[in-house]
């Protein structure tokens, strides 16, 4: 049988020295098509994982990587069909899992060495675009995936998917801001429709971010201090907590996790925008809060129509459709093309489509900053290594040559914004 991978000794040497060379990838499909310097960059970010006998690997868990079998034997299970893959075979030169079969899994028949390459970095180097909104009609599903993915996709196409409504107070203030004669008194009456939003707006006006010489006690004074546009974006953001809710006990913990993550990224986006020229922090706040809004209709759909669902199957639905569904929600709410772009591209760490930074760059850096400081899976660049970070002008040093962490030094602002969004003064 033809060999296409380095010898076991070479692989062990690579693992012991923690280096992978461009030649390691010479015969791997499809990364062999990259230029040698591109393969070297991809190899530098790669890792070799040792998988014990009997360990199960799922396509959803391995999705951030392109994985290749270096040593040992695996059994790949696809739609109840089994395929034995041996290291050194032609099949081992191909990715273990493919992106359009997210319910596949593999079991290690012996101790296995798996080469993992950063999928996003490969896509950036090769120019292969990520899934876009116009690919909805082109999605194809395996027999197993059709059980849920197919039904969900059909609901998207037919318009039967229940999209969350923009909260009443948010919708009212969006409409009111279209009146060129709008004033603080009228906005105050709208905001007072929702006591939680009222309290949050007053807290923000009195926070370290905006407070003046005297504390603000009423909503109209808070609006005057903040300004009309700041009030609009803040009220929409504060009202969003109503959207991140479910009656399903099975989905409640997942929805809460999405909300907490979104709040943190939203607050980080706000802080970053305050340190960058040409941005409105409140717009960044809203963009960060809704960057992953596509998960909400998915969890709602599953809770109503799929009482029992395997975690891997649910993860497959979320991975495949969160961006497409998120775009549907943002367009339905009328939040504008910039927010649509945030939903679509803020998870593309190597995004570098323009010389000018935008709100998508801000949310991207916020997401990476959070992931790099918390438990995460998959290959991740440092937030300060991304094109977005440098375009935003966040990478600079003091006169003494010491790097400045503008996000880390804004902990008080960050806590204030998180407290405002969550409706509490002290933040965990």
From TrEMBL:
InterPro entries: cNMP-bd_dom_sf, HDOD, RNase_Y/CdgJ
Species for this entry: Thiobaca trueperi
A Pfam family reported for this protein in Swiss-Prot or TrEMBL: HDOD
Domain HDOD: 163-349
Gene3D superfamilies with a match to the protein in the record: Hypothetical protein af1432
Protein name in the entry: HD-like signal output (HDOD) protein
């Amino acid at each position: 049988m033809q060999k296409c991978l380095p010898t076991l000794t070479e692989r062990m040497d690579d693992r012991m020295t923690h280096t992978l060379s461009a030649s390691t990838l010479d015969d791997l499909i499809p990364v062999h098509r990259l230029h040698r310097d591109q393969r070297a960059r991809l190899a530098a970010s790669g890792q070799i994982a040792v998988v014990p006998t009997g360990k199960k690997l799922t396509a959803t868990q391995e999705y951030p990587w392109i994985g290749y079998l270096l040593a040992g034997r695996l059994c790949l299970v696809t739609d109840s069909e089994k395929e034995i893959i041996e290291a050194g075979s032609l099949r081992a030169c191909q990715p273990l899992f493919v992106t359009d079969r997210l319910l596949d899994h593999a079991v290690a028949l012996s101790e296995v060495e798996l080469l993992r390459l950063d999928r996003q970095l490969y896509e950036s180097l090769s120019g292969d675009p990520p899934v876009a909104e116009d690919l909805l009609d082109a999605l194809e599903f395996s027999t197993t995936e059709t059980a849920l993915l197919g039904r969900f996709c059909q609901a998207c196409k037919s318009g039967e998917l229940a999209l969350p409504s923009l909260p009443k107070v948010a919708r009212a203030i969006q409409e009111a801001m279209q009146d060129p004669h709008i004033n603080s008194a009228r906005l105050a009456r709208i905001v007072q429709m929702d006591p939680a939003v009222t309290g949050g707006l007053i807290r923000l006006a009195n926070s370290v971010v905006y407070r003046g010489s005297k504390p603000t006690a009423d909503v109209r004074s808070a609006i005057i201090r903040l300004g009309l546009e700041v009030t609009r974006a803040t009220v929409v953001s504060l009202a969003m907590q109503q959207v991140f809710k479910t009656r399903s006990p099975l989905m409640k913990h997942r929805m809460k996790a999405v909300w907490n993550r979104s709040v943190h990224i939203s607050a980080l986006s706000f802080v970053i925008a305050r340190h960058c020229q040409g941005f409105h922090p409140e717009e960044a706040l809203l963009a960060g809060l809704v960057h992953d809004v596509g998960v909400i209709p998915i969890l709602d759909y599953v809770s109503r129509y799929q009482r029992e669902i395997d975690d891997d199957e649910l993860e497959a639905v979320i991975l495949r459709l969160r961006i497409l569904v998120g775009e549907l929600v943002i367009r339905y709410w009328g939040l504008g093309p910039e927010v649509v772009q945030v939903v679509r591209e803020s998870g593309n760490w190597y995004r570098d489509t323009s010389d000018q930074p935008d709100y998508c760059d801000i949310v991207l850096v916020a997401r990476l900053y959070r992931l790099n400081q918390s438990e995460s899976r998959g290959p991740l660049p440092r937030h300060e290594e991304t094109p977005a970070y440098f375009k935003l002008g966040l990478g600079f040093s003091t006169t003494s040559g010491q790097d400045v962490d503008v996000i880390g030094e804004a902990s008080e602002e960050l806590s204030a914004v998180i407290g405002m969004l969550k409706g509490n003064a002290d933040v965990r």
